[in-house]
Structure formats: C-alpha cells, structure tokens
Amino acid sequence: MGELAIELKGIDKSFGLVHANKDINLKVRKGTIHGIIGENGAGKSTLMSILYGFYQADRGEILVDGRAISIRDPNAAIAAGIGMVHQHFMLVENFTVLENVMLGAEDSWILNAGITKARAELKRLEKEYALEVDPDAVIEELPVGLQQRVEILKALYRKADILILDEPTGVLTPAEADHLFRILEQLKAQGKTVILITHKLREIMAITDEVSVMRRGEMVATRETDKTSVEELAELMVGRRVLLRVEKGAAHPGDVKLSVKNLTVRDGRGVTMVDDVSLDLRAGEIVGIAGVAGNGQSELLEAIAGIRRAVSGRVELNGRAIDVTGHADPAELRQRGLAHVPEDRHHVGLVLKFEESENAILGYHDDPKYRKGFILDVDAIRADAEEKIQKYDIRPPNARLKTANFSGGNQQKIVLAREMERGPDVLIIGQPTRGVDVGAIEFIHKRIIEMRDQGKAVLLVSVELDEIRALSDRILVMFAGRVVGERAPDASEGELGLLMAGVEGPKEAAQ
Amino acid sequence: MDFLQLFLELAQSTVRLSTPLILAALAGLFTERAGVFDIGLEGKMLGGAFAAGCVAFVAQSAMAGLLAAIVVSVLLSLVHGYASITQRGNQIVSGVAINFIVAGSTVILGEAWFHQGGRTPALAEGARFQAIELPFTEALRGVPLLGPIYADLISGHQALTYLAFLMVPASWWILYRTRFGLRLRAVGENPGAVDTAGISVIWMRYRGVICCGILCGIAGAYLSLAANAGWTKGMTAGKGYIALAALIFAKWRPVPVMFACLLFGFLDAFAIRYQSTPLPLIGKVPVQLMQALPYILTVVLLAGFIGKAIPPRAGGVPYVKER
C-alpha cells in the first residue's frame, strides 16, 4: 500500500483574474477510490482538466506512477493511462456505441479492421467489469445511465488505469447511481484507481477510501473517509458550520389553498404521466412529493402551474377553478397568488443570457412598478434587484452581471427571490436544491420554512428524499403517475423507499 | 424511337448540367459534415472557373487550368477556414464575403489581363477537356435500346463528369469507412468528443474545408474548361446555391446528394429544351418562368416535401473549449 498513482505538486492556474487553482498538492494512492469534494466553482473541475491535459497549469508538477510527466493534451493523458468521464458526456449522439468507443483509437486508416478488434475488446470489457451495452445501439437512444457506461468503456478501451469521474451522479437516477458505484467498486477490485469529483457528501461517505476537500481554489484538507464525518466535510467545504438539517417548529395548517381533484396528464407521446391524482394543500404547511424521477411529479407541477395541459381533472386555487384542461394562463395564475419555482431553472426558470436584474422580474415585468408608461423602468428594476440580492445573499452582488455567470446555487436564489418576494398564497417548488452547494441548500431550506411559517401553502417536489423528509409536514409518494401513499415526515427511509419503488404498503412488503 | 431519342437528349443534358452541382454539393458535404457551414461554394466555384480559364489559355493546357482552379479554390476555402475556425468568426458572413470578393475581383482581373469585357479568351480545343468516347461505342450502337443508351447517355462525356459521378461512392466510402470520415463526422456533431479523444478539432475542420476547396475547384474548372470554352463573368449563375439546396435536400448524405443534383440538373435541362416550345395544354410558357422553375421547385421541395433536414449538430458553431 501507499504507492501513489498520481501526485500533484504546487499546481497553480488562473483564468484572467480568476485564480481557479492555488498551489494544489494532492496524493492519490493506487487502487483506491479518492473523492474530491467542494462547492461549485471551488476548482475541482479545473484541476481535473489540467490532469487530463485539457488545460495547462501555470505552475506545478504532475507525477503519474512516481514519474514526473508533462500532459500537454488529452493524448498525453491517455498515453499515461488516465481516462476521464466528463460531467457532460463527450459522446457523438448519433453515432453507435462502437463508433464512439473507437473514435480517436481506430488503429488504422480504414475502419474495418479496427471494428472487428473493438467489438472483441468490448465483449471482453463487458465480461470483466459487468458493463453490458449493445455495441450497435445509437447513443441518443440509450438512457443516460448507459451513456455514462459508454464513457467508462471508452476510457477502459484506451487502457486507462486511472479513471476520473466528474460529477457522475448528477444526471443519474438513484438506482443508476447505485449501479455506477458497484461498477466503481469492481474497477477498484481490478486494481484501477478512481478519482471521483462530486459535491454530494453522501456519495463520498458511501464509496470513497480517501477524500480531499477543495474550497475557493485551494486544497484545504485530505481525510480518510472512515475517520471523518459528513458534518466535518461540510464545514471544510463551506468554511463555516453548516446545518445539514434545518430546525423547524410544528405546522399550523389553515384553509385549503390549492385543491387538486382527479388530475390526469399525458405527455406528448400520449403516455399517462399523472394518473387521477388528488391532493389538498393548506395554508401554513409544506406538502412534499417524493418519488423516483420520472414518475409524474414534473408533469403534476407543470399542470398546476398552467404550463402543461391536463386531460381531465379539476384544480382550485383559493377556491376558484383553474382551467387546467383548457388554456390556463400562467400570468393570470401568478396574479391570483400562485408562484412557481420550476424544476429546470436553465430552460424554464431563467434566461441565462439576460442580466440578473432582468431575470429577477421575469414574468412580473408587466407590473406597473417596473414600468414608465409602456417602457421598462430600468432604474426601478435594478433597485429592486439590488434589494433581492441583499436579502437572498446572491453572489456576486451585481445586478448587471449576465445570469449565466452565477453559480447554480445563486441562480436558484435568483428564481426563489423572484417568486417568494411576491408574497404568493401558494408556492410550488420543483427540485429547489438541484445542483446547489451545501451552504446555499441550508439558506434555501430556511427560506422555504419561513414561507410556511408566514402562512403560505408550499408544494414541494424533490427527488432528494432527505430534502423531502427535512422540509415536509406531510409526504405524498408518487409512483407511475399515482399517489401511492401519504406518510408523516418521520416515516422511515426504508418505508418511503418501498413506496417509491412501487411496492405496495409496508404490510405486504414485510414478507 | 422518337421518344427514346427525346429521353436520351434530355438525360444527356441532365448529366452535363448536374456535374458541377454534384461536385459542389459534395464539396459542401465535406466542410459541413466537419461543422463549418459554407455559403461560399458559389464564390469558390467562380474563382476556380476564372483561374482555370486564365491558366488554360496561357498554358494552353486543360490540366494546368484544372490545377490552377483547385489551387485558387483551396486558397479561398482556407480564407474561410481561417475566419471561421481559427478566428471563430461568423461562417455565413465569411462565406458571403468570399462570394462578393470573387464576383468582383474576377471581373476586374479579367478585364485588366485580357480586355475582353467580362470574359477570358475563348479556349482552343487542346486547352479544354474533350468528350471521352468509351470503348465499343460504335460496336454497340446497333443493339436495340441498350445500344443508344450506352452510346449517347453513358459514353461521350468529359472526364470531369465521370470523376464527379465516381466521387459519389468515393465520398460515401471516405465518410463511412475510413478513420478520416469517422473523425470528420464526429467533429461536426460534437467537437468536444473529438477533442477529449485526443484529436485536434481545428486540424480536422481545416481538412474538411480543404476537401471542399478541391472539389469546388474541380466544379469551377468543369464550367470554364468543359461546359464552356472559357470563363465568363458570373458564369456560376447560382449553381453554388443550388448545390447547397441539394445538400440540405439530401440531408448531408452522398448518394442522395447525387439524386438531388440530378433532379435539379433535369429541371435545368427541361427548361432549356422547352423554353421556346409550346407545351400540350399549357401552350407557350415564358422563358423566364422556365428558367425560374428550378428555384421555385427548390423552395417547394425544401418547404414541404423532404421532411426535417437535421444539419450536423455542431454546424456553424466555432469550437471553444469550455471553461
């Protein structure tokens, strides 16, 4: 033991004024799974891109297997036995699995010979690591989990001994993530070294042998995983103590604010996504909808928010019907006291090319307070944005910065500030902390509970079970478009898990 | 046999008129599959035609003319490559600029060098490409049906026409059966995947652009050395754009590109053949309408009949390493 697969000495890298990596030292032992954790923008990805030859360090030294080498481009990294699975897959979507695996490693200028060899090699890798994929399948027709497997196969096909995975579980369902971890264990058992970059503490604890923490471009600590705790790592990441579970008092539910009766929604292909769902949401309570992604939660939210038409059913907001099966008008719903934080902030919640202040009023731009006659009152808009920036601690505090330049957590805060500051009666929130840092999660959770305590009705959809359990006063579980059960927030994870998996109530499940 | 005669006549001129379209559309295929859109096919062809006309006249050699056409066209495509690959400029703007520059400068240079008012001197036989008589043409002419088809349709074209049609399967093979083709297609779809596989995106794209230049040069040489006896101003007459339309129509695939070009070539042939002949039921059709027919059909076909043409996904987008 103790032999090093990779050693980084004094790596330093700046992009213009941004000092992304400051004097980084890192030792990764051979045959281990080494986690690198840190908030978004802490410099993890930059560091790994340097190791993979995508960028060159301004200073510093890279040792692979004890030998100092210079990695000028990905070719050099591949030659040194380093493979990388990128966060956004580097696959050609309309190529087959085989073509993607071969690309850049074709052997000869005519493809045929290489194809036969690649096919045989894929079969061997498939057996050795339990990585089944049909070599003739076209990438875009494969589920995300399998696409990721192709990325891993690509690295193994190039004889990688060191595999870097950049935020590999961000796009995976929990089941796919578990499968990935089994694959990683398998790779480790075969003597490969795995570097896992993530900002999810739970994954680090579950799978790594050692973990290094980065914060604002610096490597702040390295720990053996079984000698550290989630709390310690969170504190190291953020630089202060973090409450992983926010405190909240008892709920005091009032009148029904939002009532959904027998709602059925189909998607574009005619598949029933929401199947006869009924629920009541009262003032002063948070109702959480748990479920594995893709079981109809998204469509339910969209139908209520008026951006997806339902097939049948009735939805009432403050006692008045919403025309969910006809032309519900999201702008009108907003005026009637419904605020919506969409699941996908990049495509639905924000216009990334707009400046912050413009996004801060998106959807409310016809409010007279932002207008001077029929033109926008830019000063009023900016003043309003500055106020929200202060209150929600949005960083950097610059209302004129392009929204794309904010981190995920701060983008989410922009959306939350916009929707919450209108004082809606009903707030529906999808995936409030997807891709958000630990520090910001704490802030967002506190704000949601504050809304509840002010007597607002909150409907929360999240695929993070921990989040649902921490925030909700009641939990509804959705499976295959139906609400399959209601539980109190203190229900065990196992019980909820069974419901989410579509196994009937716990009685039947216990043998 | 009157009908056969008519058919052969039309088919033969279809083949002749399709030749530059096929070469130009395949040129577009190579660059656009690599992710560099090129609206400058027209300009490169015209530049090639001009260079061919000048050099063939001076050197009294068709081959020298062809070579000059290729050199000029490749140089123009490198300008486009430099603007859109290295400098990450807008590919449409760069392509349009090339069209304008060539349209203007060829006239000026032609006038300065030859003083013939928008044309290069007429080429003698030896400085042009000659029709090639395939073997056994006369022997087979007597065979019913197949004989005339062989003699009048298949035989008797210029070398560049045979080259154009041979380039169709050749392009297919290059694109789908070689390492170069695999990488070329990949770089037009997801340059990130190519970069992380350790292949230079920039070099791959330049190679695509150079292939485009070579084929456009040949197309240009065909116009001034085979289809005509010299260069005249604006002689491409929108063929570059028709080739582009055929490329889209064919969804960026070599064999359909050939059929699309044959269709447009046929429309052209039809228009020329019948521009002054009264048609049954319709009567005499104005020349202008006949000449406009290929363009009208292009619009109709593109708008309604070919379904969605999905361009290479990274087409038109300069590659920047994500930060």
General description of the model:
The complex is a heterodimer of chains A (511) and B (323). Chain A is an alpha/beta fold and 511 residues long. Chain A has 18 helices and 22 strands. In chain A, the strands form 5 sheets. Chain A has a 6-stranded mixed sheet with strand order 6-7-8-3-9-10, with helices on both faces. A 6-stranded mixed sheet of chain A has the order 16-19-20-13-21-22, sandwiched between helices. In chain A, helix 14 (408-420) packs parallel to helix 15 (438-453). Chain B has 323 residues and is mainly α. Chain B has helices at residues 2-33, 41-59, 62-86, 91-114, 137-140, 146-154, 159-177, 179-189, 191-196, 201-227, 239-249, 254-274, 287-305, and strands at 131-132, 157-158. In chain B, strands 1-2 form a two-stranded antiparallel ribbon. Chain B is globular and about 65 Å long. The termini of chain B are far apart. The model of chain B has no long low-confidence stretch (mean pLDDT 91). At the A-B interface, helix 2, helix 3 and helix 4 of A face helix 8 and helix 9 of B. Chain B: It is a multi-pass membrane protein. Chain B: InterPro entries: ABC_transp_permease (IPR001851). Chain B: GO terms for molecular function: transmembrane transporter activity. Chain B: It is found in: Cell membrane.
- Per CATH, which architecture of the largest domain in chain A? 3-Layer(aba) Sandwich
- Quote the CATH topology of the largest domain in chain A: Rossmann fold
User: Which secondary-structure class do the elements of chain A indicate?
Assistant: alpha/beta
Mean model confidence by pLDDT of chain A: 90
> How are the strands of the biggest sheet of chain A laid out side by side?
6-7-8-3-9-10
Q: Uncertain spans of chain A, ≥5 residues at pLDDT below 50? A: 505-511
CA radius of gyration of chain B: 20 Å
Largest sheet of chain A: 6 strands, mixed
Based on CA atoms alone, the radius of gyration of chain A comes out at: 25 Å
Largest interface (C-beta under 8 Å): A-B, 32 and 22 residues
- How far apart the termini of chain B lie comes to 70 Å
In CATH, what is the class of the largest domain in chain A?
Alpha Beta
Strands of chain A, count: 22
GO molecular function (chain B): transmembrane transporter activity
Membrane topology (chain B): Multi-pass membrane protein
InterPro entries (chain B): ABC_transp_permease
Transmembrane segments (chain B): 50-80, 92-114, 159-176, 206-225, 257-276, 288-306
